[in-house]
Each structure stands twice: as C-alpha cells, then as structure tokens.
Amino acid sequence: MGSLAFLLYPFAVLYDGVTAIRNWCYDRGVFKVTKSPIQSILVGNLSVGGTGKTPMVEYLIELLHDSRSLATLSRGYGRKTKGYIQANSNSSPNQLGDEPFQIYQKFGQEITVHVCEDRLEGILQIQANAPSTSLVILDDAFQHRRITADLAVVLTTYDKPFTRDLLLPMGRLRESRTGACRADVIIVTKCPENLKSEQKNTLRKEIQNYTQKNTPVLFSRIGYVAPYALTEHAKWSDQVILASGIADDSSLEKYISRTYGLIDKISFGDHHDFSRSDLDALSKLWRKHKDQNPVILVTEKDADKVKSLLEEGFLPEIPIFVQPIKIQFSIEDETILRDLIAQKVN
C-alpha cells in the first residue's frame, strides 16, 4: 500500500481504539449483553464482506430445518426499508435486502425469514410472530454484541485470512484480530481443492494464536452446481459473460474460466442495486460477442434483482443463467461441526 498506508495509519489506530473500548465495555458489563431468548447460531466474520456468510447460512438451514422450527434473522443490508419485517409472498429484495430475499425464495416454505437492524428486537419480534421457532440463525451478527448466541461461527477466507489483514481503513478488519477469541469455531472458506494437511495445519496454528485454546478451525470450499435458466426458453452455452454484484467474485471467475469459456465479465459493487442501464450494458456486451453464442451468467444473490428488471421488457433473446453455489466440507470437518452444533444447541 506504500505511502497510502502511512496516510491511513492514524485512522486505523483511532478505529482500533474505538472498537477496543466498545468491546471492553461489553466484556466488563458496562454495556448490557442479553442472552438470546431463543436458541441461536451466529454466523459472522471479522472482516468486511466476501467470506461466504450466505452460503454458510444456507448450509445450516439445509442441515437443521428438518429437525428444528427454524428462522433466520438478518440486518437486511441494502434494503429500502427500516425496522422489523417478516418475509412473505409479497416481499421483494428492496424490502428485505438481496440475501434474505434469496434465502426466502429458496427456503420460505420450510423456515421463516426476518430482518431487523437491532438483532435483540428482531428476536423478540420472532418470539411474538413465530412463537413455535426453536432456533434462529443470526446472519452477520458477530459485532452485534447486545445479544449472545449459543454458538458463534466465524468465517475467514483462505486467500485473505483475518490473521494477515489490517484494521479499517488500512485493511478490511471490522475489529482487532483478538476478537476471534469470542468464536466457538472458525471456518476457513473458499479453500482450493485438494488442500494439503500441511497447509491446513500451518493456517490452523496461525489462527489459533487469536482464539481460545480448544476452538476448532475447520476448512470448507465453494461447490458449484449446474446453472439454471433465468429467462424463458434460454439455451445453455459454454461461452459465458459473467455479471456479478458480490464482494469478491475472484473464486467464481476462476471456476468459470476453468469450467467453461469466460469471454467477458462485468463486476458491480457488493449488494449492487441493478438498474435498466446495467442491463443495457449487459446487452451491449452480449451483442459484442454474439457470434460466439454466449450466455450471461449471474450469481444467485443478483438473480432476483435482475429478474425483476426483465419484466420491464429486457430483450428475451438474450439467455441469462444463474450460478448456484454450496458450502462443502471434508467428512471429518463436517462431523466436527455437526457434533459442535449438537453440543451447543440441543
């Protein structure tokens, strides 16, 4: 970062001081901490975005929804509303935020989906509106110290682990690395395939310098399943134009390049609010490569926002597909995680 790092250093020190005082106040009881009145699993991270929280939440939903009356609670980042909202058939990404809306679209028949900036208030509303709920998954709530969950799952990526990152604004950390001591398990996400034991052990030791002594460090990777059509009568082609509005699309780009033919891409910011002008830009890209018979591939996170614009008359001859992803563990690490959940949430 060079000279820029020198300029940002005083702000990082100030940020560290503010977050350290805040955490000290919660740890010492100066600020009130409330135990979640419904059993809960927290999924969070130490850094800003891009660690794979939503795939992890979906993994937990698939794992637990058959045995528990399950709800999810998110802040609803990027939504145009405020306060507590329970998702229903009339909800939209603008009302819920793109990630809660995605979860509702996939799992709304099996679970309830809720958003609220204040997680404690959200839990109390769930008690009132969905009283049969026996377990809540709290999405992105690790820094929301007012409420304590039964199990804290903290994610960090393999390529950019929190142990090698710096505090905002020099880096992407929301709080000091020592915050990892509050985690019940650390999951390293977006790992490469065939990661060797030696590589795991090296990173595990590095991470455990900041955790409690017996905190497990597990490793996961992103699994990609077959794309599905977003537009009617669309036909698949291995020639892909990638369009993404996520925090970090590097893993997806590598997968597309390796598996299909990535002929072009356009990246938007995280939680991007797609507009008609964005679709016009995609249309121009598609026409530019029309001779190669390409498809436009979007992420699940972006799919519903893009689909809502298609209804305004986007050209139907342009095939648009969605790329789903799933969290995958080794058998050993998945067993450790399942056992830990059974111990903490019974």
TrEMBL record:
Binding site for ATP: 47-54
Domain of life: Bacteria
Keyword presence, Mitochondrion: no
The enzyme's E.C. designation: 2.7.1.130
Sorted UniProt keywords: ATP-binding, Kinase, Lipid A biosynthesis, Lipid biosynthesis, Lipid metabolism, Nucleotide-binding, Transferase
Record pathway: Glycolipid biosynthesis; lipid IV(A) biosynthesis; lipid IV(A) from (3R)-3-hydroxytetradecanoyl-[acyl-carrier-protein] and UDP-N-acetyl-alpha-D-glucosamine: step 6/6
GO molecular function terms listed in the Swiss-Prot or TrEMBL record: lipid-A 4'-kinase activity
InterPro entries on file: LpxK, P-loop_NTPase
Record has Kinase as a keyword: yes
Record-linked Pfam families: LpxK
Catalysed transformations (reactions): a lipid A disaccharide + ATP = a lipid IVA + ADP + H(+)
Family: Belongs to the LpxK family.
Biological role stated in the UniProt entry: Transfers the gamma-phosphate of ATP to the 4'-position of a tetraacyldisaccharide 1-phosphate intermediate (termed DS-1-P) to form tetraacyldisaccharide 1,4'-bis-phosphate (lipid IVA).
Protein name: Tetraacyldisaccharide 4'-kinase
